[in-house]
Write the structure tokens for this entry.
Amino acid sequence: MNGKNRAFELDALRGFALFLMMCHHTIFDFRYLLGMNLFAFQESNWFNYLIQPIFLCIFIGVSGVCCQFSRNNLKRALKLLLLALGFSAGMCVFSWYTHEGLYVFFNILHLLFVGTFLYGLFALWEDRHDKKLPVNVTDQETPKTRREVGLIILTGALLFSDRLIDVYAFDIHSYWLLPLGFLPRNYISMGDYLPILPWLGFFFMGVVIGRMAYKDKKTLFPDAPHTLLRVARPFEWLGRNSLLIYLIHQPIILAILFGLRYLGVW
């Protein structure tokens, strides 16, 4: 997404979702790590089943849309895998050192890796398959339509997987199925967890939207008013640097909060 036709709305949406995540992590730290009797609404159903899923869906969905703009999704997937593994290792060390149960075995970074990798494989197969198709445009439209329908069916199956599969009905003793959503008995306390089922469905929902709405890889709002662009600019910056900010924001927040506690502010 380069130049004046860059899809600023995607950066802004992802940045806004990231901003909400940062706010959530901050209030989480206040209540559960600092032990302060604040922000009890985090334990309410409306927050856990409405507010939090909204910004997660936006972040994951926009990441799926952005696959349409990537030249090499497999390369992006490898980068995400390295970041996810590094993040998990860092949280394991932190949890062991502080005796806090904040282990992260599979969260949004791991989920984005899986989605990007799978779509990268699909795009690679699609590119090779298209080269074998006849030059006639009409002959090419049918298989392309079938692919879109297939992606939509896959998206629907993933989104409703929790209705189709009762993950709590299985007596699991291993962590190998944890990425899918099957938690083992007496599992270790985790600081974050976002399984493939059903959350990968929101990623592929974004993939479908990207393939349909961003075929030209340009913004859908080329004549957006300058006021809107100015308001969106901070969120755009967050969205463009979302991976880096996601990785570093929590250590920075914790350093500030515990530093202020050390100074006697609270």
Notes: Residues 1-69+223-266 form one domain. DSSP finds nine helices and no strands in the chain. The chain has a mean pLDDT of 90.
